[in-house]
Fold this sequence. Notes:
Blueprint: H1 3-6, E1 23-26, E2 29-35, E3 42-53, E4 59-66, H2 73-86, E5 92-96, H3 102-105, H4 108-115, E6 119-121, H5 123-132, H6 142-150, H7 156-163, H8 168-172, E7 181-182, E8 188-191, E9 194-201, E10 208-213, E11 218-222, H9 244-252, E12 263-266, E13 272-273, H10 275-299, H11 304-311, H12 318-337, E14 341-345, E15 351-355
Amino acid sequence: xxxxxxxxxxxxxxxxxxxxxxxxxxxxxxxxxxxxxxxxxxxxxxxxxxxxxxxxxxxxxxxxxxxxxxxxxxxxxxxxxxxxxxxxxxxxxxxxxxxxxxxxxxxxxxxxxxxxxxxxxxxxxxxxxxxxxxxxxxxxxxxxxxxxxxxxxxxxxxxxxxxxxxxxxxxxxxxxxxxxxxxxxxxxxxxxxxxxxxxxxxxxxxxxxxxxxxxxxxxxxxxxxxxxxxxxxxxxxxxxxxxxxxxxxxxxxxxxxxxxxxxxxxxxxxxxxxxxxxxxxxxxxxxxxxxxxxxxxxxxxxxxxxxxxxxxxxxxxxxxxxxxxxxxxxxxxxxxxxxxxxxxxxxxxxxxxxxx
Length: 356
């Protein structure tokens, strides 16, 4: 445990849900954990006791699922175990997806179809996911390779592998449901008789939705607040002059008014208390990274690729490098939008940033 983690409280200690099983963490809330085929090797999913009216006017008891895992046979097998062991013979009534990244929405189509359950998601992320299942936009292919090259990642082998990843998103999210219920900031959703408020967040995904229950002081934070790692905040080729880091930092401040004893249920890592502390840590982390970036640019003009060893001290594989490049450019863009750096396009087609 690093020093920042030591400032947080993990009420369940080292306990983890068993594979294909669940662990109750709050009234009516069960924690599921599934494996991912990445360096970030797991995702937390949530099973909420629920009941919904049916067309006849009767009330049907069941469950609401929050997030789904990527579309893999292994994840489907884990879900089948959950269906058999954790649902108490009741159906899944709806599927809530916090945002459109593959580990969150990948199996939404399968779950919705299997249980005839509706998908709930923000409109922005729903439509972004639909586009991404039909193209390489933002996740690989020629456009992504060109974007990374313009920020200094010019290694031919890396660019060839990025071009070859044209089917990265569709491979993990083969389809999304044809219909959805829109989730909006401030909207209140009643789940199992309790009121959960939607809190929108930006910078990590187009329109991420977290869920907060004031009655039980419980926050399903998705990827917006993680206890052990900082959330990836990237610039993509689809919005090449965006400022996602500023949006992200503004978004996490929306959690500051929540109760100090809020139990935060993140998508990665373990449930924790100490939300206000973690928000402060994330602000400090990015202040430190921004200071490193501007110091490097003061020494000599830097591209995004030049910033990689400044921000990331460990070796990175290609998958990690693409995320790291997005983060490096996001930090450069924050300083550029603030007027502290200026951007110049060189004769070699690479953007470099220097003090304004």
